Structures are given as structure tokens and as C-alpha cells.
Amino acid sequence: MSEARPKPAAATSAAARPGRPQNAVLSGIGTTIFTVMSALAQQHGAINLGQGFPDYDGPPDVIEAAAAALKDGRNQYPPLTGLPELRAAVAAHNRRFYGIEVDPDGEVVVTSGATEAITACLAAVLNPGDEVVLLEPLYDTYVPSIRLLGGIPRLVRLSPPRWELPRAELAAAFGPRTKAILLNTPMNPTGKVFTGAELAFIADLITRHDVYAICDEVYEHLTFDGWRHIPLMSVPGMRRRCMRIGSAGKTFNLTGWKVGYVTCDAGLQPNVAKAHQNLTFTTPPNLQRAVALGLAKDDSYFRDFAADLQAKRDLLATGLMRLGFGVLETRGSYFITTDIRPLGWSGDDMAFCRAITEEAKVTAIPNSAFYAGPHPPDHYVRFAFCKRVPVLEEALARLAAWIGAGRARSARR
Ligand code: PMP
Ligand code: GLN
Question: Which of 188, 252, 259, 367, when mutated, tests ligand 1's pocket best, judged by the most ligand atoms within 8 Å of its CB?
Fold first, then answer.
């Protein structure tokens, strides 16, 4: 028999691939800087102070609760908007920390991480052509998520070292096509915590232009030196306009779990829920049950959590300052922004991050990755301090040796 067999798929040549263009937004972006730098860290055996994840585990009782929930039949689809006990815990958490009264049945949606929540909240309100106001530097999923939905980002830039709100520019960014603002406080990568006065200014713009606010508040419990997180939702007039996003990953040192939660008015919740229904539909029920237990923890858990991170921030900030970095103030989040010019570095931030990864064996993130607009500053570098103390000390020792050897002053351009 000489019947021709169908060729295996692997034998299909590249020339036979479809020629039609794929999605322009996704084709136009690269792999996220966090993945790129973590891979580089691994390749060079470097201490990873780049991607923001703790190198220690979450609370044992929360992890135990998840393990137990795996074994008691909690393994099928949970309700679309989340397990009732987690929705109740999210509502109670809002009341306890911010005095925000929430209906757990009609005003909460549990998502697969804050990343999904951000897209779901954007999708809930945007139509193609709608504008969204954003503050740079910003988390790298915001702009692609908006563009994928056909929205148009309007970027307003904060300036280092103080990252103050540029009020006139912000006001000028709002117009008849503005549908929403996406606000991140405490802010990644700057470590800024928005003040009551700044939030009142933003709230006034939101009301005057009749728009929505997507509030990325994943670092709500990571504030230092007496700085307190204020949800925009708690500002007068904002309750029905805000979609407030939290993340168990950040609040419980469990970044791999990807459990997020949206709190919003009953008028917005159905669309957020329907966006979630079309993105992932539900979120693992065993993890949800454990996060419900976590959110109900004593106030002391949240206090100790912030105090522990503050000590790590102090250790890293002081060490970097001693080494000659310009160290910007961090009031919240996992991150310290440093100015690399005082070291004598003559290249850009990406070259610096590559050099310290390859030569000092310490990895950080170039801040220019947090800009979507043209000509970002290229002499700032972000270090994560959510690491064990000996790891932070070792990273500082490695950087000290590298700087001591004159490597930061080598010509790079
Ligand atoms: N927003 C900001 C500002 C972040 O830094 C992160 C980091 N993970 C996220 C959202 C995503 O959170 P999650 O891991 O819960 O998706
Ligand atoms: N939020 C983390 C950071 O800013 C990383 C999250 C991610 O890798 N997607 O470093």
C-alpha cells in the first residue's frame, strides 16, 4: 500500500503559518519585566530583589485551612461571585478597617488575583474609545488591559523624588471622553501613599466629570511610619463610583494563590461579575475558604505584618544609602526606588540591572519598565525588600563588593 499518510503537525513549515496579523496590542508588547528579570536572576544565581514576592510563606493557619479545604469536598465550582464566607469576610474587613458598609451578596466579587480584578473592573465600565486616566509610573498590566478593551489610556506623570500629584495636569487629562481613572495606592513602584487631600482632589474631578474609579489597593496593609491607607471609596461622594480591589497575595504573603476581591456598589457589581464570568468564571474554592479565615485575623496580625516589613525596608534602605545609592522615601508597598546616578553609573537603568545581576548576583527592576509614555527617566531602579533578613544582608554585601571593586563606575555607554 502506498497511500500517503497525513504529515505530522511538526512537519508543517513556517511558511504555512497563517499570515493574518494577530492581536496588535499583544503583538506590540514584550514579556513582563518581572518574568524577564526573574529568569535572568535564576540564570545567574542572583538574589532576586526584582519581582515582588516574599521568600517566606504565608500564615500557617491560613495555609492549613487551604490544605484542609482540599480534603473536605471543596473541589467543584464555587458560586460565580465567590464563596459566601469569603464575601462576608471581605465585607467585614471593609467595615473593620475603613468603616465602609458592604452588602456581601450584592457588592463583592472574588476574582483570580487582583490582575483579573483590574481587567474585570475595566471591562465592567469601558466601551471602545473611552478614555482612562492613569498615573505614571504604573504597574505594567494596566495599559495593555485598557487597550485590549478598546480603551484609550491618558497618562499623567508623577515626578521623583517626591511623586507629588501634578494637580493641573491631572485635571487637564479629564475630558468628555473620560470614563474612569485607575488609581493605585499604596503605589507600585513609587511607594507613595496618597493623602486625604490628594484623594479629595481626585474625588472632585471624578464627580465633576461623572466617571468611575478602579482602585488598585493591593498594598492596603503595607504602609509604614504611621502612614495609613485611605481607600478612595471612603471619601465623601465616592462610594458608588469606586471599584476597590484587594489581593490575598499581598495581604498574606501568598502571591501564588491569586485570590483577589472587588468591593463595589450594587449598581456596578453585576457587570464586574459578568466580566469575571467571562474571564475565569470562578476562583479555587479551597483557597477562598482559607482567605476568609485570613481576613478575619486579629488586628495584631495586620500590625505585625506591617511592622515586620517596615524593619526590612529600613534594613535595605539604610544599606543602599550607605552604599551610595540615592534612596527615595517608601511609605508603602514592597518596594524601594533608588537613584543610581550618585554611584557614578553612566549607563541606563536596564544596563545597571543586567550588570548587578550578572556581576554582583543581585537582581532589581529598571523603573523605566513602569512607564508607557515616551522618554521615561532611565536612572531609577526598584528593589523589593519582602525577603528574609539574611537574604537582604547578603544582597547588600554582594552589592558592596561590586561597588567596592569599582564596577559601578565602569564606562557603560
Ligand atoms: N496591582 C499591583 C500594583 C501589583 O503590584 C500587583 C502585583 N502582583 C497586582 C496588582 C497583582 O496582584 P495579584 O497577584 O493579586 O494578581
Ligand atoms: N507585583 C509584582 C511586582 O511588581 C509582580 C507581579 C508579577 O510578576 N506579575 O513586582
Answer: 188
Q: Mention the CATH class of domain 24-53+300-405.
A: alpha beta
Q: How far is the CA of 105 from the centre of ligand 2 (A)?
A: 30
How many Å lie between the centroid of ligand 1 and the Cα of residue 369?
15
| Residue 334 Cα: closest atom of ligand 1 | 5
Distance 174 CA to ligand 2 centre (A): 28
- Can you tell me which atom of ligand 2 is nearest the CA of 188? 4
**Residues paired with 154 in a beta bridge:** 133
Architecture of domain 60-297: 3-Layer(aba) Sandwich (3.40)
Cα 387 to Cα 410: distance, rounded to the nearest angstrom: 29
What local confidence, expressed as pLDDT, does residue 12 receive? 53
pLDDT for the residue numbered 74: 82
CA of 188 to the centre of ligand 1 (A): 9
For the CA of 384, the closest atom of ligand 2 is 10
* pLDDT for the residue numbered 411: 60
The domain limits of the chain are 24-53+300-405, 60-297
CB atoms within 10 A of CB 90: 24
Cα–Cα distance between 111 and 82 in angstroms, integer?
A: 8
138 Cα: distance to centroid of ligand 1 (angstroms): 11
Q: Which residues of the chain have pLDDT under 50?
A: 1-2, 413
